[in-house]
């Protein structure tokens, strides 16, 4: 993998040079991991005019780069004495010592105070904005990244499938969420990809719902959204079920509408398709079914080292899908006081010649009465 990280850093170096900056400071944790692999918490990466340096306040538990002989294109590891210093400030000081005239920083990741501290540490260095250059490099995943996400999807599916085989009536949303997260770890996940969402009854279908002590009852919709973190890569799956022997007519109508919308969104995932088009075809199905009021502003988003990353599938999103870009398609409708339906999947965009979008989460989307 060290060659992969080196190639990623080389691409970023080329972009910085083309923009007029001989040095760059990468501080966003997911971006540092993308360029170096697993690193200590809080570490930053200086792409310097002389040498790349990984600056941290603690030594890594394992070598963050290759375990063989040092490579000339690997960053030097600098562990700061004491835990109170700021690695970003130390990196800016290193850039100044290497006579860098400018330093590109991730302004979207820095607080105002931290940005000022960088300027004070290197007053002769002009601070420029690196923008979302690393995030753009992260958009298209390689085979190893997709393999990790595929395993993360399998772990999430497995945890959810096992839960559905247990008795659910009478258990609280909070209890079910905790059990799901325990099952993820038991099956080999590093942890949950995000706080697990469990919503029952009137809470079902609410986006980002935090589990409460509300107990599952007969006749409820039950919405579950969970994800696994495997080797830093994340995957998301969400399903809605009915508790009891059979769903009510209104529950079937609502579920069928959301299912049709989600299917339309999945089928729209192809290289060259505009982000906003995927959102539009999904939203149109729900609007035509009479559920257009109060729809969420986002139909889906990218996923990888973070559970919510570029691209965004929204009405105003600019850009087009590329092959090997993982995204979620997760429409939902919530009816206040009654509950709602959400169906989430993670897919990898693939051309039609390769079979179309690859589904990473395969738990059945049939409306199950549990």
UniProtKB/TrEMBL annotation:
For the keyword rRNA processing, the answer is no
What residue stretches are annotated with the Creatinase N-terminal domain? 8-140
Molecular function (GO) terms for this protein are:
aminopeptidase activity
What are the alphabetically sorted keywords of the record?
Aminopeptidase, Hydrolase, Protease
Q: Please verify whether the record's keywords include Hydrolase.
A: yes
Q: SUPFAM superfamilies under this entry?
A: Creatinase/aminopeptidase (SSF55920), Creatinase/prolidase N-terminal domain (SSF53092)
A Pfam match is: Peptidase_M24
- Family annotation (InterPro entries): Creatin/AminoP/Spt16_N (IPR029149), Creatinase/aminopeptidase-like (IPR036005), Creatinase_N (IPR000587), Pept_M24 (IPR000994), Peptidase_M24B (IPR050659)
Q: Which PANTHER family match?
A: AMINOPEPTIDASE, CYTOPLASMIC PEPTIDASE PEPQ-RELATED
UniProt-recorded name of the protein: Aminopeptidase P family protein
Q: Region Disordered: what ranges?
A: 195-214
Q: Where is the Peptidase M24 domain?
A: 148-350
